[in-house]
Every structure is written in structure tokens, then in C-alpha cells.
Automatic annotation (TrEMBL):
UniProt-recorded name of the protein: Mitochondrial transcription rescue factor 1 C-terminal domain-containing protein
Source species taxonomy: Eukaryota, Metazoa, Spiralia, Lophotrochozoa, Mollusca
Gene3D superfamilies, sorted: RNA-binding S4 domain (3.10.290.10)
Top-level taxon: Eukaryota
GO CC, alphabetical: mitochondrion
Keyword match RNA-binding: yes
GO biological process, one term: regulation of mitochondrial transcription
Signal peptide (UniProt feature, chain positions): none
Amino acid sequence: MISASKEPKQGLKCADSKPVIGSLCCQLSSFSWTIPSDRTKLHPFSFFYWFKQKKKNRKLQEETFSDDDEDDFENGEFEEETDLPLNYKQLTVHMKSPRADALLSTGLNLSRVKIDSMFYAGKLLHNDKPLTKKSKNVNEGDNVDLIMEDSEIVKVKRVKVLKISSEKTQTDKICVILRVWRSPFSLESLHEES
């Protein structure tokens, strides 16, 4: 049997800010813990101390990891595509290797299984030619297309590799800057203009 004391408990107040006296008459959801304001130092084993230290360590890691080289890499200006639609997104992604299937998966936000099924259906293009191996490594300036409609007018979603970093991150990944067209556009209009 639970017994309640007649004295108010330290830090335990009811929803209407009155100290609890006697038996517990309010619901448990209406109670809240209050921390006294005179507590400036936190005990090393308390949750707040741990959280504060974790936040401080995260800031230190970010400061030591950010190099000027990486800032130059991410802030690089790239030439605009005059013959392609302007509704693209420029992404910076970190990947193990710049494989064509991995680039399409991360750039177009599709699963690898869906990309594999599109590859076996023959709906992937690399620089306007059919992709023969899904594990093909791509270089800077390459286009990887996913054919959406294969009628008279071919509509594709495109991922273009703008830059591949030569340095690896701490997690042994490379940084790749992509330009992604997620809404389909027609390839026929591009070939007619050129």
C-alpha cells in the first residue's frame, strides 16, 4: 500500500502551482518537476551535465573538421546549363564510390532495388548511351539519365556530376557535387536544338 506524507515534497507541484499536501489527489500527468534556481553547478552524473558536454564536444568536432579546402569545394561556382531546364537542384553528397546506380539512387531519392529493376529493363543512360554495367564509375561532367517515358518523345530524369573530391572524409567517403533534375524533361528537344 502506498502511503502519502502530510508534508509537501521538494520540487513536486500540482498543475495549479500549489504544493502537494496529503494524499495525491491530482492525476500523474498534471505533476511537473521544478528545478530550484539556486542550482548553478550541475553534478557530473546528471543528464543535464551530460547533454551540455555532448553539445560542447559536437561544436569542437565541427570546428576542427571544417577546413578551408572543403569550403572552397562546396562554394565553387559551376557553369549554367543553357539548353536544359532551370528546375534543378544542386546537391552535395558523401558516398563510398561514384557508381552510376548509387548516384541515381541518392540524386533522385529512389531505392537501389528500383534502380536495379530500371537497369534490367534498359531504362538507364550514361552520356546518352545505354548503361551496360550498373557498377560503372562516373567522372566529372558525366550525365546519368533515367528514362521515364519511352514513346515518341523520350522523357528522362537526369543526374549530372559536377565535381568529385579527391580527398576522403573521416568516414572514408568521397564528396560529390551533383546537379539533379527530378522532374522529367524531354530529350528530343535537346537533340533538335544542337
